[in-house]
Amino acid sequence: MAKLGSVGPSRSGDQFHYEWAARQCLGLLAGKDGLVAVSIEGASLAEGDASTDAGDEVIDVGLYYGSEELAEARAIRYVQLKHSSKQANKPWNVSGLAKTIAGFAKRFNNLESTLGIDVLAERVRFSFLTNRPMDEDVLEALADIAAGVKTPRHTATARLLMRYAQPAGGNVQRFLEAFSVEAGEPDLWEQRNLLSQDLSAYMSAPDADAPLQLKELVTRKAADEGARDRSIRLYDVLRVLRVTEVDLLPAPSLISEPKQVLPRTQQADILSALLSAQRPVVIHADGGVGKSILSARLARAMPEGSVAVLYDCFGDGTYRQALKYRHRYRDALVQIANELAAQQLCLPLIPSTGADPKAFMRAFVSRLKQAIDLLRARNPQVSLCIIVDAADNADMAAREIGERAFVHDLINTDVPDGVRLAFTCRSHRREHLKAPLDTIVIKLESFTKAESATHLRLRYPDATDTEAAEFAYLSSDNPRVQALAMEGGQPISDMLRALGPTPTTVQRAIGDLLARSVAKMKAEWGPTEAVQIDLICKGLAVLRPLVPISILAKIAGVPESAVRTFATEFGRPLFVKDAGLHFMDEPAETWFNETFKPEAAALDAFLATLKPLAASSSYVAAALPQLLLSAGRMDELIALALSNESLPELNPLERRDVELQRLMFALRACLQQGRHVAAAKLALKVGGEVAGEARQTALIQQNTDIASVLLAADRIEELVSRRTFGGGFLGSHHAYEAVLLSGSDDLIPEATSRLRMAREWLVVWSGQPRKRRRDDAIDDVDRAELAIGLLRLRGPAESARFLKGWRPRTTVLRTTKLVAARLVDLGDYRRLDELAEHAEGDVWMLLGLAAEATRVAHLLPEEPLRRLMEILTDPKVKLPEEELSWRLGSDVLDAVRAAITQALRRLPRDDAT
User: Fold this and answer.
1) pTM of the entire structure?
2) Which among 376, 633, 710, 850 has most CB atoms closer than 10 A?
3) Dist CA 295 CA 312 (whole Å)
4) DSSP SS3 for 419
């Protein structure tokens, strides 16, 4: 009787195989050496025309780099694994390799005829991997053969190896050069422990279930599932870990550089200081001096062997939008770590659902150590630089919603030797970083006179030295001031006149340009409109981006067209979208805040103007708590949160969402300020609202197309950022998010991206075995959501193609009915008719459309209806469940009745006179 917990010898080899293969799958996360697929129990079925069945029986695992197609792959490694429990210490002799070498040699010979010997020898490798040791004579004989030694050290062993390799034909020598033995691999139990250790190293927090799920994935591929697809790819592993690619790279840099960038005089000195720094470096400057441009240039100027990652906290002005937050640990640290992982310097960082900031910091620092250790193994003098641009903006965004920014921990963390940290910020916000006392502080100066002259001549190549000197003087040598001044393309004399007559400080120089733009508009618009311009400016200074144009118009008492005109005439610092405005330039945003943000007395009047708008705007209702907190009005904030005042009245979906959000905001603020009695009251109310919110979320998920019309863009972004939706298969939530986002023109690019991800996850789901697909079932609702997303974002042709592709065919009927019902609810009969026209005679899809159209007395287009009736009246056509439907009723029978009703009303009758 086997000992308790033992694995029988007949099964231990399989388990060893699965555990080892699961560990190789982790390489897909990092794209290690370009790994794109791991095949199980044979070669990949995607190898293409050059493939062969020869030797498949000895391939336990295939590793594909670059591509799974033989003709495109950069490298392929075929591996046979052998494990022994009873003879773990007994060396393999040469006869133990006979079948392995013969099988691999046969495949080598067949591949040579399609790939050519040179390509084959360069790209393909064959390995025998075992936990047992290998006879030293065998290893030396293989080495001698591969080296072309005329008289091997072990002639008899070499002769046997050559004989086993005879199926390679005339290329025995070349084959044995491509064959290797890897002995002494850790045994089954150690493989199991290594898998858990390796996987935990990828996660931001421990996950005991992940190793089991990953091994289960390999096991399924080795069973029936492998008959259709033997390969494991990145999406399969992500599915096991329950993350998406957005989770891995959540905040890419959006820093854009001018086409012509001037090298800064200080750059070399700052780079030298950074590379030698043993403490964090803070680079500060006034607005417009070029901190972001310098950050980008520093990242690219690393000496050979050193590496830099640039993290952008400003995000092109979107850093305060719920969907684009950049201050959180799970955004910033995961982004930086995975950019390093993409360079093969460390393991990827997989964000776990339950990970807290401490867990993220611990995992992040471990990756910094991996990266610097790898870099310094190559060259002990190199550095790894992490450059965090606009770190003060991360702090501002975090404080605005009562959270903690990652920069506070990162700047105070002890990082491994060789890792350099740099943070940029505005000079007057240095304290926002909460840097240690021994931080190295460097001020980035404005342009030198020579730099200003060069900058001027990029736009005015014929500028004289006198004009260059005046330009430098009047612009205070500030790069942003100069860029704004030259942006209009006016004659140089007019440009200089606009800058004068006297220079100011950097802040005032920028402010003067912006102030002149405002003053010019006031003069052109007249005294009455000047007051309205001030109100627009106050709204931009106080409210979070994207500020709805409709709200600014109501605050100022002007038409929306007037706000759009203001933004257009103001120029570059304001970024105009269809429905809102935000600042692309941080100096402009700061100037507006400092110039127009109302003081205490004026804030009363501004809030009095704003509060009535909360009844009709979820944006305003959600903004009020932050405005009250920033004004120090905690009592008013608590009273507002506990009341039902200033909530959207016309939209119950937005009302509940905003109410819960402001309750949570007020609760965090009370806890941070130690107001525990008020916090207890708020907590009690939060408990009741949370249950209601769950019901509302379910309602929104069931009606995303309607919600996308009813909800404001900022509410949609907030909902999506909270990741509240879910479906039958991993990744299905992207479909619901796509439809919800598609209701706003500004969010269409994001919606399109989410839809693409949903379809890619659907491909992964479809590759699962039937039993697995039943466990993670995609139901009709999920299918309908994907179809609606395709309809709204890709058009009726692609949506119809998606609907028609499902089996069994009755699935098409059920799903189409759901899609049609949603369109009917919206009154979107145009899209309903377009789907009918693109059904191309698919009886099940047309029946589904007819059933819902008849319910509301809408007639489908004549031609699709005619084709449907031709099919239904064809005596050769029989629909499933026909007999059962007459007795019990069914969707099929109801749909046929509806189609007949449609035909009687729409199509000309043969007996008509």
Assistant:
1) 0.66
2) 850
3) 9
4) strand
